[in-house]
């Protein structure tokens, strides 16, 4: 069984279009503007997780904070979230879900896939008018620590 698992992992690695360095634990932090229905809130946000060298992503914890007291009403649900690097300029988190605990206008956003733009220049993922059903939107850039770099995998002759 272990040999089969190693063979499957090796074949998946050979077909991955990207390499991600460094693999391992990361934090991605920045200002995230969220809107649930008509309620906008901007929060200092941190995503903690693991990234594999083949582009697989696991988000294990999300923290919302900042000066706005509404930030304390936002909670990540369904962790860990799984995702992957689609190509050197894009990544997708498959099952993102948050709950906004505000009377009358609060509720759950997701779960659903969220596609983010990636740039190596600032080692960051950008939420650019990202929507998460039924009525949530997000904008902001999360910078990674340590700085993560995503490159196309070079093919060997």
Q: Any overview of this molecule?
A:
This protein has one helix and eleven strands. It is mainly β and 157 residues long. It has one domain: Beta Barrel (Porin), CATH 2.40.160. The strands form two sheets. Strands 2-3-4-6-7-8-9-10 form an eight-stranded antiparallel β-barrel. A two-stranded antiparallel ribbon has the order 1-11. A hairpin with a 4-residue loop joins β3 (39-51) and β4 (56-65). The protein is elongated. It starts with a helix and ends in a 5-residue tail after the last strand. Mean pLDDT is 87; it is low at 1-14.
* Main sheet attributes: strand count, strand direction, barrel closure: 8 strands, antiparallel, barrel
**How big a fraction of the residues is strand?**
over 45%
CATH topology: Porin
* Low-confidence parts: 1-14
Structural class: mainly beta
> What is the CATH architecture assignment?
Beta Barrel
Distance between the termini: 31 Å
Calculate the mean pLDDT score and round it: 87
Seen as an oligomer or otherwise, the chain set is single chain
Total beta strand runs: 11
Rg is 17 Å
Number of domains: 1
Tell me, what is the CATH class? Answer: Mainly Beta
Protein name: Activator protein
